[in-house]
Amino acid sequence: MMTQMRYLFLALAVLISLHYILSFTNESYNNATSFSNLKDQFVGNTPPDHPAADSSYPSSGTLSLDKSHTKNNSTAGRKANAAFVMLARNGDLPGIVTSMKQMEDRFNKKFNYPYVFLNEEPFSEEFKSRVSGLTDSPVQFGLIPHDHWFQPDWIDETRASAARADMVQNSVIYGGSVPYRNMCRYNSGFFYRHELLKPFKYYWRVEPNIQYFCDLDYDPFLVMQDQNKVYGFTVSLFEYEATIPTLWNTVKQFINSNPELVSPENAMAFLSDDGGETYNRCHFWSNFEIGDLDLWRGEAYSKFFDYLDEQGGFYYERWGDAPVHSIGAALFAEKDQIHFFNDIGYRHEPFQHCPQGAAHAKGKCWCDEKQNFDYEWYSCLNKYEAMFKS
Ligand SMILES: Nc1nc2c(ncn2[C@@H]2O[C@H](COP(=O)(O)OP(=O)(O)OP(=O)(O)O)[C@@H](O)[C@H]2O)c(=O)[nH]1
Ligand SMILES: [Mg+2]
User: Fold this and answer.
1) Which of 100, 171, 312, 356 is the most buried (most CB within 10 A)?
2) CB 322 within 8 A of CB 240
3) Cα 59 from Cα 76, distance rounded (Å)
4) How many other C-beta atoms lie within 10 A of the C-beta of residue 42?
5) Taking the complete model, does pTM exceed 0.90, yes or no?
């Protein structure tokens, strides 16, 4: 009996010594058997394709430096049904890679959202391979259907070209360009109908040559989803009057004919200083957008876009997708559903939003806090904020 016990102890001692020797000499053995890893297997751990950073988020543009707040893991393991959307020409490649690399470095390396590129011409092999090389996320390249892009036949070209000549005369930016008008109309009323975007609910629009100044360690798509937001912006400003002379009258006609489509909790106060009589020309700068595609796909905005399109103002004037989206969001969503992404430092020439104070520190932003458009005379942020003060 005593001899058997002695053998048992001896065998145990050999096993324990072996375990320690392997733990020190073999990393994968150590990883597989360490107490914390074994615990994770039982208690549950973060899936490998999920953001490694803590991904809880601040609400409504406010920010807390309290680490316990950001450690509550409320968004851990979740992703929204979302994609980046980049409309681009092959010639935009240098600016596209600049934007995309920043997006990857500041945010998407951790979150792995897919990209959708759209173009009215096929993307070149060079474009596709350079762009795909920047990310581990899925990248898709879509061709825009002809009828979604080009000037429709029913537009009176004589009238349209006279309007363009007039704008060139008056030095209106992009006033002489048909492709620019195609782009504005496409962004206003078609991009969200593209086959490649059909599976998605949320999008983040990214343009060439933009800058992202700060690290983003939470998922803005989940902010949209969890807080029932439908439109997010970083910069807002006034539109050039010369590009939209009849837009507001057209909007008013639409509202008068379809009052039931306008949200009772709308953001008209952002658009108008006199209860809707005149347009103050405020709009969200649409080169940055995080939005809910269903806002555009819904009945109200679909009817609204069709009505605007029928008036021909995308070609007889130069209606931009920024005022059209902004008016649509402000009228058909509730004002609480429009979100200011205060902690996303962003620049599209010539304006930038640079987070201030604690937000600047938290995002390790590299923009100069003094260079911030928020309360410049040409910004509309104060009108947005005024809607929530009473
Ligand atoms: N495929 C395609 N994309 C275009 C065309 N024109 C513009 N875009 C894209 O549409 C978006 C807006 O165009 P931009 O030229 O940046 O317009 P903008 O921001 O008003 O003007 P900039 O100050 O020049 O940036 C960008 O993502 C462009 O790459 C076009 O003719 N074809
Ligand atoms: Mg641009």
Assistant:
1) 100
2) no
3) 16
4) 7
5) no
Q: Are 248 and 311 spatial neighbours (Cβ–Cβ below 8 Å)? A: no
pLDDT by position in tens, the chain (length 390)? 455 666 666 565 555 555 444 433 343 344 343 333 333 333 222 222 333 333 344 434 433 333 333 334 456 789 999 999 999 999 999 999 999 999 999 999 999 999 999 999 999 999 999 999 999 999 999 999 999 999 999 999 999 999 999 999 999 999 999 999 999 999 999 999 999 999 999 999 999 999 999 999 999 999 999 999 999 999 999 999 999 999 999 999 999 999 999 999 999 999 999 999 999 999 999 999 999 999 999 999 999 999 999 999 999 999 999 999 999 999 999 999 999 999 999 999 999 999 999 999 999 999 999 999 999 999 999 999 999 997
Read off the tokens for 135: 């990310």
* Atom 23 (ligand 1) nearest CA: 349
> Is the distance from the beta carbon of residue 87 to the nearest atom of ligand 1 less than 6 Å?
yes
Cis peptide before 355 (omega within 30 of 0): no
Ordered structural domains, the chain, with CATH: 82-342+382-386 (3.90.550.10)
Q: How far is the CA of 276 from the centre of ligand 2 (A)?
A: 29
Given the CA of residue 120, which atom of ligand 1 is nearest to it?
Answer: 1
Amino acid letter, residue 36 = S
